[in-house]
Specification:
The complex is a heterodimer. By secondary structure, chain A is α+β, with helices and mostly antiparallel strands. In chain A, about 35% of the residues lie in helices and about 25% in strands. Chain A has two domains: about 100 residues; about 120 residues, Alpha-Beta Plaits (2-Layer Sandwich). Chain A contains five helices and nine strands. The radius of gyration of chain B is 16 Å and the shape is globular. The two termini of chain B are about 20 Å apart. The chains are: A alpha+beta, B mainly alpha. At the A-B interface, strand 1, helix 1, strand 5, strand 6 and helix 5 of A face helix 1, helix 2, strand 1 and helix 4 of B.
Chain lengths: ~230, ~110
């Protein structure tokens, strides 16, 4: 079987001597202006182990400097070279469009942590709480939750606006977790990395109550749309 | 510094898992990851997030740490003990993605 890492644009420059999963040599299968990067694979399906995940990622990143790269999700196996050829033929136009979209661009991850607020602590219901008091208490809890949500969106929008200005595309989630105000991925031109980093630091200095955690550059995982 | 290393590694791993298991080109019919395994991984994600929270709590009462963000964006902080960093990562240098750094604005702020 073949284990697939990425789709890249041609011409393929000589690949560095990479070893993929199970120490197999990394190879290319080409068609027209694109190529699939893979290695031979035998045995049971790849397991989810951190070392294996990094191995996949290392192969993909080794391609980033010289190619446009569509990273393939971990765990993709094809039966043989014929299946690979069919994949490239059937999805040729989509892969070409995807490669054009990510050309010269990288992905940066941003997470913004903000202080956890204490759980809304409405007064404990009295033993003789009547219906009216109960409803008032529930309403107060709901209003507190809504206020928190409004505040989150307001803060997240302000932070996002600064970073989005430097990006050509983004995906983001506001409050995916009680402690995470914003979780976002930005697709930025490679040459804008330094500017982006400076913007992150400046945002942190201007917003002392939050922590910004930023990693990158990554292959454009969030911007390949499944292809 | 050890806590700093741990957090950086955790956040980067969190971001890797978020991408490599859930995003990217899908080869339909050939996805081999079982649902049970993915569930385990996402349980792991929550634990990682918790460890970041814990780190912050420790830092609040601890010494100021060096700002990773003052280092090149795609390099390990030079102050980090490279040998121990590698010890916690995949075994072969060839496996190492060349970029692994967190720009942590909070730390930059602490130093200023």
């Amino acid at each position: 079987m073949l284990y697939l890492y990425a789709i890249i644009n041609r011409p393929v420059t000589p690949l560095p001597p990479l070893r993929g999963l199970a120490e197999q040599a990394v190879q290319c299968g080409e068609r027209g202006d694109i190529a699939a990067v893979y290695s031979q694979y035998h045995g049971a399906a790849p397991r989810i182990e951190v070392a294996q995940l990094w191995r996949h990622e290392a192969v993909v990143e080794a391609l980033l400097d010289r190619h446009s790269v569509l990273p393939v999700r971990y765990g993709a196996l094809l039966a043989d070279e014929a299946a690979l050829t069919m994949l490239l033929r059937e999805r040729y136009d989509r892969f070409m469009a995807g490669l054009a979209r990510v050309a010269g661009r990288v992905e940066v991850s941003v997470r913004v942590l903000w202080p956890a607020t204490p759980v809304v602590s409405a007064p404990r219901p009295a033993a003789d709480e009547n219906g009216r008091a109960y409803l008032a208490r529930r309403m107060a809890e709901e209003q507190a939750r809504e206020a928190r949500l409004r505040e989150a969106h307001k803060r997240a929008d302000a932070l996002h606006a600064v970073l989005d200005h430097l990006a050509v595309a983004h995906v983001r989630q506001v409050l995916p977790h009680e402690r995470v105000l914003l979780s976002a991925a930005y697709l930025i031109p490679r040459e804008a990395l330094d500017t982006f980093r400076v913007a992150i630091v400046a945002l942190g200095q201007a917003n002392p109550d939050v922590r910004l955690l930023c990693t990158g550059p990554w292959p454009a995982y969030h911007f390949v749309d499944g292809e | 510094m050890r806590e700093h290393l741990l957090a950086e590694r955790d956040v980067t791993l969190l971001d890797l898992l978020d991408r490599i298991l859930d995003k990217g080109v899908i080869i339909s019919g050939d996805i081999t990851i079982s649902v049970a395994n993915v569930d385990l991984i996402y349980l792991g994600l929550r634990l990682l997030l918790t460890s970041v929270d814990n780190l912050e709590a420790m830092r609040a009462g601890g010494p100021t740490l060096r700002a990773a963000s003052e280092q090149p964006f795609h390099a390990l902080p030079s102050e980090v003990d490279q040998s121990s960093a590698l010890a916690q990562r995949p075994s072969s240098a060839a496996q190492q993605p060349h970029r692994r750094a967190c720009a942590d604005a909070a730390e930059a702020r602490d130093r200023s």
